[in-house]
């Protein structure tokens, strides 16, 4: 039988790899697990080449018995829409490395009972660690004391100051939006935001106010707080244009709100951005891709948050958690036609 046909007939074993590479199973295991100083570089390369040629997949249970790890991580989220949980998941998977660590995604749906069920299930699977993604950027209850493995919180910090977390910088996001509009020569800037109970809404508003104050500008009216959706964006914009016609720029609290803003501004006969420039937050692809004109939006780096969460979890698993318990990821402004016209 041709040796390359082995994976089609039965599972390739470590003994198969060792025999073809001309080494003992013990040496093959050391080579594949990259144990420093125990196997020569040439032997490692030979064993790995054979393993790849045969399509050898290490037995996860056997690896766990030797390393005390299962190569699995749980990710629990309350983000039903996937606006940030899916990019965070992809970032975490990128950091863990393809084929090295599997991530089990569980949706808590904002239900403590469902979340408890998922926690028990993940503990039962002996996952190595957990990443917990909050539904909003405000501190959430800690679950670290309920599970026997390291936990990292992403997007929302834990209420326990000793827990590890990776969060976006919403204040800086507000500053970026305002700085860009001021640089574009806009001086009559309004802000339509979402739920005022969200720290994200308050922190973005604070960032905008800081920049406007620094340039001697006054915001057009107080920030209008409401819901995180298009109907609120439409209603707030109608109110703004009816009472404050001198506005030349609007900062929308989210891409959903901003879709309502754009629709209402265009319906009023004003041009974007020549009459009114528009900047948003989230840079969420499903909304950005269909926007006319294309939407300038602050990207919070959700994939980067996922990558950093994975790095922190790996460090904790290695017994080397960082002294800084909460890490902040700096957002970036993605400039498009809605604010520049180019």
TrEMBL record:
One example GO MF annotation: transcription cis-regulatory region binding
Alphabetical keyword list: DNA-binding, Transcription, Transcription regulation
UniProt keyword DNA-binding present: yes
Residues annotated as domain HTH lacI-type: 12-67
Top-rank lineage group of the source organism: Bacteria
SUPFAM superfamilies according to UniProt: lambda repressor-like DNA-binding domains, Periplasmic binding protein-like I
InterPro entries: HTH_LacI, LacI/GalR-like_sensor, Lambda_DNA-bd_dom_sf, Peripla_BP_I
Name used for this protein in its record: LacI family transcriptional regulator
Taxonomic placement: Bacteria, Bacillati, Actinomycetota, Actinomycetes, Micrococcales
């Amino acid at each position: 039988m041709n040796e390359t046909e082995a994976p089609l007939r039965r599972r390739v074993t470590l003994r198969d790899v060792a025999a073809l590479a001309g080494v003992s199973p013990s040496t093959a295991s050391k080579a594949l697990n990259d144990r420093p100083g125990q196997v020569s570089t040439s032997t490692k390369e030979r064993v790995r080449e054979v393993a790849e040629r045969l399509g050898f997949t290490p037995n996860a249970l056997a690896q766990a018995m030797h390393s005390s790890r299962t190569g699995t991580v749980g990710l629990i989220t309350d983000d039903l829409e996937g606006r940030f949980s899916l990019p965070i998941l992809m970032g975490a998977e990128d950091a863990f490395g393809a084929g090295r660590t599997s991530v089990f995604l569980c949706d808590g749906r904002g239900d403590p009972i469902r979340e408890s069920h998922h926690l028990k299930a993940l503990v039962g699977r002996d996952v190595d660690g957990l990443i917990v993604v909050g539904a909003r950027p405000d501190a959430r209850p800690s679950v670290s004391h309920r599970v026997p493995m390291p936990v990292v919180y992403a997007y929302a910090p834990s209420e326990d100051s000793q827990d590890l977390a990776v969060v976006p910088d919403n204040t800086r996001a507000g500053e970026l939006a305002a700085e860009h509009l001021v640089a574009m020569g806009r001086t009559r800037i309004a802000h339509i935001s979402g739920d005022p109970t969200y720290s994200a809404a308050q922190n973005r508003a604070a960032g905008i106010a800081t920049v406007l104050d620094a340039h001697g500008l006054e915001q057009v009216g107080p920030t209008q707080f409401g819901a995180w959706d298009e109907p609120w964006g439409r209603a707030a914009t109608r109110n703004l244009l009816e009472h404050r016609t001198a506005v030349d720029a609007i900062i929308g609290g989210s891409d959903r709100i901003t879709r309502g803003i754009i629709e209402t501004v265009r319906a009023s006969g004003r041009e974007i951005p020549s009459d009114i420039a528009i900047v948003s937050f989230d840079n969420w692809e499903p909304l950005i891709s269909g926007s006319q004109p294309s939407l300038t939006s602050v990207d919070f780096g959700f994939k980067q948050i996922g990558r950093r969460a994975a790095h922190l979890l790996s460090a904790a698993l290695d017994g080397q958690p960082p002294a800084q318990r909460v890490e902040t990821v700096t957002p970036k402004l993605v400039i498009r036609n809605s604010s520049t016209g180019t």
